[in-house]
Known about the structure:
The chain is mainly beta and 160 residues long.
Amino acid sequence: MRRTIPHTAVALTALALALAGCGGQADSGKGGDSDSVSSSPTPTTSPTTAPTGSPTGCASASTLGVRDSGRTVCMAVGDTIRISLDGTAKRPWKPLSPKGSVLEAANSGIVLQPGDASAAYKAVEKGKTRLQSTRPLCAAQTGRVSCLGLQEWWVTVVVR
């Protein structure tokens, strides 16, 4: 008598192995040369109330990093905000780009490491915008299983 393995069991096993090849280790968000996977980081500080007249959940900040993803930041017209996202050559961050005319690009300095995204913006008028960037979840390597997922970073900026 011949033994057979149901096709469903084979398919589920293959799917589990493929998913395990892409995920499994957490990333500090710092970049490094690790091929590990991370989910989008959560903010490390709880939102606070900004100066008088600002809504709850709107915090002031002059410098933002990977761990600030998902935050809402308040600025006054004339203030400058700097963003520094540490990536790697294998998992680079896309350049940041604000929507609308609320923020204007300012001198952010020099990016020294491949894969990093660095930017500075000056608040030029009242309004609201979103800064965002993405990078691959998995480093692409020839001859190895890879994933097509993206890690997203975003911050909502409110200029008052």
